[in-house]
Sequence to fold (205 residues):
Amino acid sequence: TGHSLADIIALQHQMFWYHTSLSDQTHPYRSVWWQWPIMQIPIVYYYHDFRPGGAMASGTACCVAEIMALPNPFVFLLGLVSVPFTGWLAWQEKNKGYAILFIAYFMQWLPWIRAPRELWEYHFFPDFAVIVLCDVVLIAWLCRRYAANPNTARVLAGYAVAIVAAFVFFYPILAGVQVPYDAWYARMLPDVWHIPHTSWIMPQR
Fold:
């Protein structure tokens, strides 16, 4: 309260000017907007090679630790299907709640296309909540549509197991657990996640 429309516009201008000064074209974990929904370049907040000899050590030697900002792939990547489906369902059923989810997803994401600053995957993370809700919309629709099919429960149970298994598998690189290098490398899926580590630590901006 106490601010005019001109004040709001001036603040937007100040924020845009601030972000134009944040440009680092060499950061190994920088990404662009279209890479975010497919998790192409996850952010690494911490990496340490504890092996004697470092990169020259055996791949089975212990240990490497990393903290990566990595959503569960089975939840996150389903958004590539569930978000468009929710938009389609909003149109078909004239459901305003679904329409809000669909619009909110793109309103949070697409303005970053013209951002002048360097960008990282975490700029997309506010949409993760929308993705989860759209996943639920899709799953609930499948349950209603195929309730009589005995395979429906099996498929959904398999999906739930896959989510838990993915969490267990990726937990070491989510929590900085020290694991042998080979075990760490096995979790760099797809291989594009294996980005050469430098002294960079993600700045908090």
The helical segments are 5-20, 73-76, 79-93, 96-109, 126-145, 150-175, 181-186. The beta strands are 43-49, 64-69.
